Amino acid sequence: MKLTIFHPLSALMALSIATASAQGTPPPLAPLPKVPKEAVASGKVSSAAPADVVASAVAAVARLGEEVVMGRYQVAVEKMNPEWKDRVAKRMGGMEALEKQLSGVAKQMVQQGVSMISFKPQGQPRSFEVGPGRKVETVNGEQVESLVFNKWMVLIPTSTKFRILRQGDPKPLVIESIGFQVAVSDKGKNDWTFIDGSGLSVNDLRSIYATLPQDIELPPVEKRESR
Question: Is residue 134 in a domain?
Answer without folding.
Answer: no
